[in-house]
Amino acid sequence: MILIVAEHLDGKLSKSTYEMVQAARELKREAPVSLLVLGSGVASVASEAAKLCDQVLVADLSALAQYDAELWSAAVAQIAYEGEASLVLIGGSRSGREYSPRVAVKLDIPLLEDVVSLTDVDGGIEAERYTFLARVTERVRTEAPLVVVSIKPGAYTPAAPLAQNAEEFDVELALPERRVEVTGRESAKTERVSLSEADVVVAGGRGVGSAESFTKIVEGLADQLGAAVGATRAVVDAGWRPYAEQVGQTGKTVQPKVYWAIGISGAVQHLSGMGKSKVIIAINKDAEAPIFKIADYGIVGDVKEIVPAIIEKLRSK
Amino acid sequence: MKILAVVRQVPDAEENVRIIEGRVDLASSKLVLDTMDEYGIEEALRLRERTSEVEIVALAVGSARSEEALRTALALGSDRAILVESSEPLDVIAVSSIVAQVAQSESVNLIFCGGQQADWDSQALGAAVAERLKWPQATWVTSLTVDGDRISGKHDVDEGTETFALSLPAVITTQQGLNEPRYPTLPNIMKARKKELTRKKLIEFGTSPRVTPVGSSIQIKERLRKMLDGKDAPAAAGQLVDLLRSEARVIA
Ligand SMILES: Cc1cc2nc3c(=O)[nH]c(=O)nc-3n(C[C@H](O)[C@H](O)[C@H](O)COP(=O)(O)OP(=O)(O)OC[C@H]3O[C@@H](n4cnc5c(N)ncnc54)[C@H](O)[C@@H]3O)c2cc1C
Ligand SMILES: Nc1ncnc2c1ncn2[C@@H]1O[C@H](COP(=O)(O)O)[C@@H](O)[C@H]1O
After folding, report:
1. Domain check: are B191 and B232 in the same one?
2. Alpha-carbon distance B2 to A94, whole Å?
3. pTM (2 decimals)?
4. What is the ipTM of this complex?
5. Which of A137, A301, B186, B237 is deepest in the core (most CB within 10 A)?
6. Is B189 exposed, middle or buried (0-12, 13-18, 19+ CB in 10 A)?
7. Residue ranges making up the domain that contains B127
8. Of A68, A140, A255, which to mutate for an interface test with B (greatest number of B Cβ within 10 Å)?
């Protein structure tokens, strides 16, 4: 079987789960596709998953109410082993990239990390992934009979639901004790579409000037376009925006249809998180800013004048 | 307390990357200690400044040029260094076996490792090492307090941040925000040349990669690079919106 670990939030499957299902389908293997749902109170997630695959495996346990790398990797390794999986797909989210190596070590199998394409080749599997701060595309290959793969969010188009509902099975897990105690959390949830799933991202940098100005300019344009909001590290460090909005090497990787870079210089660490966007629009007062090198459309000017004018123009359509 | 700081020598972020015959060629690239690893060295140094009895061992697994990263780690204040030299590309799961073996033979109880390495863009090393040692880990840590064998801190998670607590031994992966790394001073760079650097051979660790590179390429997406002058803001905004509607077709 191909085992896919479902990513979900607030009782719904994440877009990344649909993308992983697509990755599995494109391999065109005979093997059934199983979705593993881990969590607590996940009945709605499981029934949504049933529309996507051949079999849903559910572990609905209070012990799984909160993600933990050791618990998740133990659960996934056990199910992959018992189900004689030939491939394990895990989301390339921060958590997925944290527990997938543990699964690989537990099962003594190779890890293909954050892959953007996966193909069966004679006697093995080949994958493409980005390296050198996403400047290089590397092709790697492994011959192992079982491989764990994390799939980069946004790399695949989301799979369409099937006509038939798959059967759901409860699984029994032998879980270890939780050793990392979570003592507090700050979630940065907004009413907006989530950054990693958005088709349009409006991101602001230090050039926006202040937190207040960010709300007015960047959020203003995002509201107008129904877009998600992103930020540079400089903006997050300055405390203008929450970390969850950071795009780049140490933040989120996004690959939207349209990326607006407002007052962003275009440092390599930022580019590595957004450089694969389909259309890039940049507004910066410095004509030499590196962001213009990768922009499709650029305006050299003051964001405080240009962006309100764009919002105005969009409104008066 | 004995700390293992894992370091890596990577191309400077501003360096252009070249590919020769399907492989990234770094022969003429400027390489530096990965910034992500600097935070681990710095945090180890600060722990030693606060507590006595802290020994810091820097470890690099990689090409002969990794010695430069170790010399920097020593100049910054690490006590000793170990280089496991490998001319072959190793995958991250293979490297984790080497790191775990060194951690065991050195009897360390805290490992620092960069959150992501700027060459292979992997985030897996810290967690893979933790699993091999059966230790807990915290990744993407931005603040850290060590009190006896209890560690608490703050780190980044999928949606936001969390504070956490765990007991040593453990693996911590580091990133920007954890601290402000210091620079090596000239006298310390000189002194570092005399510090102990042990070389070990890959063969001593009995590990081999199971993921093989097939080829690398640089695909730079052609960008339109249409530039508009924004001196007249309403005019520029109008032009842009028109282009996005009729040419790019990304707004209705
Ligand atoms: C290990 C490491 C990891 C990192 N990870 C990330 C990451 O994940 N994400 C990230 O973003 N960065 C990251 N960085 C930081 C990165 O190197 C840059 O410092 C950061 O991206 C700069 O953010 P910025 O573009 O907002 O600010 P700046 O570089 O200060 O750029 C501001 C821009 O705004 C323009 N500007 C100013 N005023 C105006 C105005 N009124 N109108 C129009 N334009 C104006 C300026 O011309 C300038 O180009 C990382 C760095 C390191 C070392
Ligand atoms: N079209 C592009 N898409 C993504 N990144 C790019 C593009 N063009 C250049 N870059 C990156 O932008 C930085 C500066 O590029 P340059 O100075 O043009 O070589 C380098 O890190 C390049 O890899």
Report:
1. no
2. 28
3. 0.91
4. 0.88
5. B237
6. middle
7. 2-205
8. A140
